[in-house]
C-alpha cells in the first residue's frame, strides 16, 4: 500500500504509550501541533507510581508538561502552549516549534456500534474522530505504539502512524557490520600512495585515497581472494587511514583461555575483546555464533592471567521468553542465577579440566566466585565500575535510555561488552530498529575506542546451525 503524501501543518494525537516509551516525544514533532486527550493524562497519572522505567518516564512527562504550563492562563491553554524545547536548547531535534493542545471540552462524536465498550483506546479514537470533524482542513494523525489501536483507527478512517522518531535505522539490514570487503583492484589502485612500517612486532599501513572515507575506526578490512590479509582501521583522517594487521587467533599459537577463533568474524571479535585500547565492544549475532564464549574467554584471560581487570561483572535484562516464574528467593546473585544460564554454561566449558581431580575443580570454582560476579540491572543507578570487565548479555532488550544508563557506569580502566541478537527482542514496544543495542552500535561506530562485529556463522553444532537456518 502506498502511503498518502501529506503536506502542511499537522495535528498529532498522542497515545499514552508513546509518552511512556519516550518522554521527549513532546518535542520531536518539529513545527506540528500535539494534542493530548484527557484520558491520556488520566492514564499517565495512573502509571506514575513505582520504580520501573515506565514510571520514571511518566513522571518526566509530567514535569515537562508542568514546565510548559508555567503561569499559563485558561485562554493560553485553549490556544495551545508553545513547545519551546524545555531543557533542550542545545539539541536541534528536541526543539519543538508547534503547540501543545489539551482536551478542554467534552467530545460529542459517537463511535460506531462495531466498537462496543468504553475503554481508554476507544475514547482516544472518539477524540480523533471529533478533531477530524472540527478541523477538516488539517490532517489529524493518531500516533501510537499499539498496533491494534492503529488498525482500529485505520478501519474508522483515522490516519494513524507508529512513533518513528526513536528509530535509529529505517531497516535493520543497514546496521553497521564492523567489516568492509576491499575490492579486487585495491592493491593496484592504492599501492603507490601507501606507506608501511613495523612497530612492537605489529605491521602498519598508511593508505591514502577516496576509499578511506567509507571506513570507521576499529573497522576490519578483508579480501575474499586473499584470506591472509586481515587488517583493522586504527585511525581515519579525511582521505588518509592507518590500518594494522590483526593477530591471527585461528591458529594454535594464539589461543585465548584455550579457545581459538573458528571463522573470520570470530577472529575479528577476539582482536577487539583482547585490545586494551578498545573500551567498548558490541557483538551481534544469531544463537550459536560464539558471542558469549568468546567474550568470557577474553575476560578470563585478561582478568586471571594478565591482571588487566580486577573482576568480571556479568548482567542481563530480566525479560522472560515465556510466562514469568514469579519471585526468586536468595541474594542478588542467587536471584540472577536462573537468568544467567547461558553465561554460566559457557563458563563451565571454559573452566572444565581433568587435571587436579575434585580438589582442583573445587579450587577453580572458588577462584571464579571471587573474580566473576553476577549483578542485576535494577541496582545499577549511581554505581561506578573501576577496572572491571563488564558483560551485558541480551542487550537487544534494552531501550536506548537504559543502555546509556548502564554504559555511563563505566569508570577508568573498565571495558564494556554488549552481546545480543536483534532478531530476538522480548521487550514490549522495542523493535530491531529502535533497540538500545542498535542505537549504541550506530552511535559508537565513529569513536576510535569502540568496535563492533556482526557474527555471521553458527559454530555451536551442526544441529543448532541447521535449526537456526531452517526453523
What is shown here, in short?
The protein has 471 residues and is α/β, with parallel strands linked by helices. It has two domains: 152 residues, 5'-nuclease (Rossmann fold, 3-Layer(aba) Sandwich); 299 residues, P-loop containing nucleotide triphosphate hydrolases (Rossmann fold, 3-Layer(aba) Sandwich), CATH 3.40.50.
What does this structure look like?
By secondary structure, the chain is α/β, with parallel strands linked by helices. It folds into two domains: about 10-160, Rossmann fold, CATH 3.40.50; about 170-470, Rossmann fold, CATH 3.40.50. About 30% of the residues lie in helices and about 20% in strands. It has 15 helices and 18 strands. The strands form three sheets. It has a six-stranded mixed beta sheet. Helix 8 (about 265-275) runs parallel beside helix 9 (about 290-305). The longest helix is centred in the first third of the chain and has 17 residues, at about 55-70. The chain is globular. Pfam families: PhoH, PIN_4.
Amino acid at each position: 500500500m502506498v502511503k498518502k503524501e501529506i503536506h502542511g501543518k499537522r495535528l498529532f494525537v498522542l497515545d499514552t504509550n508513546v509518552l511512556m516509551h519516550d518522554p521527549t516525544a513532546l518535542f520531536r514533532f518539529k513545527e506540528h501541533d500535539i494534542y493530548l486527550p484527557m484520558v491520556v493524562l488520566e492514564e499517565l497519572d495512573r502509571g506514575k507510581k513505582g520504580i520501573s522505567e515506565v514510571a520514571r518516564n511518566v513522571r518526566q512527562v509530567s514535569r515537562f508538561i508542568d514546565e510548559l504550563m508555567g503561569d499559563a492562563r485558561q485562554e493560553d491553554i485553549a490556544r495551545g502552549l508553545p513547545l519551546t524545547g524545555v531543557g533542550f536548547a542545545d539539541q536541534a531535534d528536541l526543539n519543538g516549534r508547534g503547540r501543545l493542545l489539551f482536551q478542554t471540552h467534552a467530545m460529542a462524536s459517537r463511535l460506531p456500534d462495531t466498537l462496543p465498550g468504553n475503554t481508554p483506546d476507544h475514547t482516544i479514537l472518539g477524540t480523533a474522530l471529533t478533531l477530524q470533524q472540527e478541523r477538516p482542513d488539517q490532517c489529524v494523525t493518531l500516533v501510537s505504539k499499539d498496533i491494534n489501536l492503529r488498525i482500529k483507527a485505520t478501519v474508522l478512517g483515522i490516519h494513524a502512524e507508529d512513533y518513528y522518531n526513536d528509530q535509529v535505522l529505517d531497516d535493520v539490514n543497514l546496521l553497521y557490520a564492523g567489516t568492509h570487503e576491499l575490492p579486487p583492484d585495491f592493491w593496484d589502485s592504492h599501492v603507490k600512495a601507501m606507506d608501511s612500517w613495523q612497530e612492537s612486532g605489529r605491521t602498519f599501513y598508511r593508505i591514502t585515497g577516496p576509499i578511506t572515507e567509507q571506513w570507521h575506526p576499529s573497522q576490519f578490512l578483508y579480501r575474499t581472494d586473499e584470506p591472509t590479509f586481515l587488517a583493522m582501521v586504527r585511525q581515519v583522517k579525511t582521505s588518509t587511514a592507518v590500518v594494522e594487521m590483526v593477530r591471527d587467533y585461528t591458529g594454535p599459537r594464539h589461543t585465548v583461555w584455550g579457545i581459538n577463533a573458528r571463522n573470520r568474524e570470530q577472529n575479528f571479535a577476539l582482536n577487539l575483546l583482547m585490545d586494551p585500547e578498545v573500551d567498548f565492544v558490541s557483538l551481534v549475532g544469531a544463537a550459536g555464533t560464539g558471542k558469549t564464549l568468546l567474550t568470557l574467554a577474553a575476560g578470563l584471560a585478561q582478568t586471571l592471567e594478565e591482571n588487566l581487570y580486577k573482576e568480571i561483572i556479568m548482567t542481563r535484562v530480566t525479560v522472560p521468553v515465556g510466562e514469568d516464574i514469579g519471585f526468586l528467593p536468595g541474594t542478588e546473585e542467587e536471584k540472577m542465577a536462573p537468568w544467567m544460564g547461558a553465561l554460566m554454561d559457557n563458563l563451565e566449558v571454559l573452566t572444565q579440566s581433568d587435571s587436579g581431580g575434585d580438589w582442583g575443580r573445587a579450587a577453580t570454582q572458588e577462584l571464579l566466585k571471587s573474580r566473576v560476579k553476577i549483578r542485576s540491572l535494577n541496582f545499577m543507578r549511581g554505581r561506578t565500575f573501576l577496572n572491571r570487565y563488564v558483560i551485558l548479555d541480551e542487550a537487544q532488550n534494552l531501550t536506548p535510555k537504559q543502555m546509556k544508563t548502564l554504559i555511563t557506569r563505566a569508570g577508568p580502566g573498565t571495558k564494556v561488552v554488549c552481546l545480543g541478537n536483534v532478531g530476538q527482542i522480548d521487550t514490549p514496544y522495542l523493535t530491531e530498529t529502535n533497540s538500545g543495542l542498535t542505537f549504541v552500535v550506530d552511535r559508537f561506530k565513529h569513536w576510535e575506542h569502540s568496535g563492533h562485529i556482526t557474527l555471521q556463522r553458527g559454530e555451536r553444532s551442526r544441529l543448532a546451525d541447521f535449526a537456526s537456518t531452517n526453523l
